[in-house]
Amino acid sequence: MYEVIYSDGCAGLRKFKRYSNALTFAYKLIRENRKLKSVEIFDANTQNFHSSTDFVALMKYWGDGSSYWDNMALLNPKITFKRL
Asked: Can you give the pTM of this predicted structure?
């Protein structure tokens, strides 16, 4: 199970059984929603996944430059490898 959490001023969540479907949905959001602030894809099957700040469960992220993961990438360069 994969979760796509996104925000365009109002947070949203969609769950997918396949990673490819979650990735397609995330790219569609980025392409079509001009107000989008952030998109994260998490592996909800990861043991103890309970927070959108969980680096272990994070698969991919996209941000407008001011998202949580954009700011964390400044502190930890490993995070930039997970950027969409």
From this structure: 0.89
Give the contacts of 38 (CB within 8 A, at least 6 positions apart): 6, 7, 61, 62, 63, 64, 67, 68, 69, 70
Q: Are 33 and 5 in contact (CB under 8 A)?
A: no
> Are 33 and 8 within 8 A, CB to CB?
yes
Mean pLDDT, rounded, for 29-56: 87
**What pLDDT, on the 0 to 100 scale, is given for residue 75?**
92
Give the position of tokens 């103890």: 48
The token duo for 78 is 């490993």
CB 63 within 8 Å of CB 26:
no
